[in-house]
Write a structure and sequence with these properties.
By secondary structure, the chain is α/β, with parallel strands linked by helices. It has helices spanning about 5-15, 90-95, 95-100, 105-120, 130-145, 155-175, 180-185, 215-220, 235-255, 280-295, 330-340, 355-365, 380-390, 410, 415-420, 440-445, 455-465, and strands at about 25-30, 35, 40-60, 60-75, 80-85, 125, 200-205, 205, 225-230, 270-275, 300-305, 320-325, 345, 370-375, 405, 435-440. Helices cover about 40% and strands about 20% of the residues.
Length: about 475
């Protein structure tokens, strides 16, 4: 089917409400729609593995030394099962929980929420994983508030806890309905936002506070060109700003003469992520003035999540493109951020669930707000889930026909190459960045990045239960 025909079909399908209950619910795979089964969960299980970082990973004014890779298995009454993975990031999800507990303690809280979600899921039935996710996450959030002793626990914390469960539900959904590719899984209501088919996705690396500038330059020399840089360093607001300005000055002095074929100007796009560390608009404006002073302003493509979500600062008068990330927990939150002046959405299927991310993508699409896929420092198998969305989003402004996906696990996980062995197609060239991009050829699209294929190590793990 030609892309124009597909868009027409998808737009018509997208006028329908999101998949809900009932035997008439359908998934639209581009060319045809089919009735879907109602699935009942008979049993569920989960586990986790601790993966160390190469070095302390700094953002939000704190540092991670490890992440927990969670797996979940859902088995239906028909005997079919689905296994999904998730990566926990307590610091990203809710810095207050990270600060109030040991690193392992914070991870234990989130994992307890995953286990609670699976306990709730036993006996539940659903047609679409979106339906299941909508039923689970409010209950998991309320449970998390009690476990964390935090009545203001962020909704993103619950969504992060649900990623493995949600992914398992999507795999089970595909197997129950005989769906063999990602396109056929996309609910009709969200097809318009996921109708692109990029031949390439820009691979965005991440440089946190302690990454030496010579490593950043080496990444550029190897072909990376869309540079994500953490700002919002530890300290008071004045100390943070001084550190951020010095850091950006050093990086720009090193990269200002570097060139890429993927932008109109030939210059490298900068992507600054503050993770809500800036408390006032005036402080951010001083940072922006510094960018102008050093000649970096014109290269700024994105400034992500500058303010804490509770500050509710209107940003319509800030000239740079600000993106919402962890503050856009749900569609409602995303729309509120758009009204406040945010002009991009950082989608995180690997952190806020595929189900919620599809909904946010469609809401942003209808408001003509571009989206891209940001990372959570996830394992290789989860990069493919993120890439599946990034490859189908409309091209990000200024990049031509190119998807945009962040992946920084190769920079931060000590055992990255060992973790790659869980990929369904470990040797496929489209699983690795080549000169700054993922090349998405016919083989990639045929196999949907391998996200629906069994993962032998995890299959063996849950076969014993």
């Amino acid at each position: 089917m030609e892309r124009r025909e597909f868009l027409k079909l998808a737009a018509a399908a997208g006028t329908a409400a999101a998949i809900g209950k009932g035997a008439s619910a359908q998934a639209c795979g581009g060319a045809a729609c089919r009735p879907l089964k109602r699935i009942t969960i008979e049993s569920a299980a989960c586990g986790f593995e601790r993966e160390p970082m190469v070095r302390p990973f700094g953002f939000k004014g704190g540092y991670l030394t490890e992440e927990w890779i969670v797996s979940a298995c859902l088995r239906s009454t028909s005997g079919k099962h689905g296994i999904g993975l998730g990566t926990q990031s307590v610091l990203w999800s809710d810095a207050a929980v990270f600060a109030a507990n040991s690193e392992a303690g914070g991870n234990a809280i989130m994992f307890a929420m995953t286990q609670h979600a699976l306990n709730l899921a036993k006996g539940m039935s659903f047609v679409s994983p979106v339906e299941l996710n909508e039923a689970l996450w409010p209950q998991v959030l309320e449970y998390g508030k009690k476990v964390a002793s935090n009545p203001r626990l962020r909704a993103t914390f619950a969504l992060n806890a649900l990623v493995a469960v949600d992914n398992a539900a999507w795999v089970l959904f595909a197997r129950e309905n005989g769906l063999t590719d990602f396109d056929s899984m996309i609910p009709a209501a969200y097809s318009p936002a996921l109708s692109a088919r990029h031949a390439k996705c820009a691979s965005i690396p991440l440089f946190s506070y302690k990454v030496p500038v010579d490593e950043i330059k080496a990444a550029v020399d190897s072909g990376y060109f869309f540079m994500k840089i953490k700002i919002g360093q530890p300290g008071t607001q004045e100390e943070m700003l001084a550190k951020d300005m010095a850091r950006v000055s050093q990086i720009h002095a090193t990269l200002k003469d570097c060139r890429t074929p993927y932008t109109k100007t030939g210059k490298l796009p900068y992507y600054f992520d503050a993770n809500g560390r800036y408390e006032k608009k005036e402080t951010l404006l001083r940072f922006i003035d510094h960018l102008k002073k050093i000649g970096a302003y014109e290269q700024v493509a994105i400034v992500e999540e500058p303010f804490d979500e509770y500050a509710e600062i209107d940003v319509r008068d800030i000239p740079l493109r600000l993106a919402a990330d962890e503050s856009a927990h749900t569609v409602k939150d995303a729309l509120e951020r758009i009204e406040m002046g945010y002009r991009a959405m950082a989608l995180k299927p690997i952190a806020k669930t595929m189900s919620m991310s599809m909904k946010i993508a469609q809401a942003a699409f209808e408001k003509n707000v571009p989206c891209f896929c940001a990372d959570l420092t996830v394992c290789p198998a989860m990069v493919e889930w993120n890439k599946a969305v990034a490859a189908r989003l409309p091209a990000f402004p200024g990049l031509g026909d190119l998807g945009l996906v962040e992946t920084n696990g190769h920079q931060n996980f000590r055992n990255w190459e060992t973790m790659r062995k869980d990929l369904a197609y470990e040797t496929a060239h489209w699983t690795r960045t080549e000169k700054g991009v993922f090349e998405l050829d016919a083989d990639y699209w045929k196999k949907s990045g391998g996200i629906l294929e069994p993962m032998p190590r995890y299959e063996a793990m849950y076969a014993r239960r």
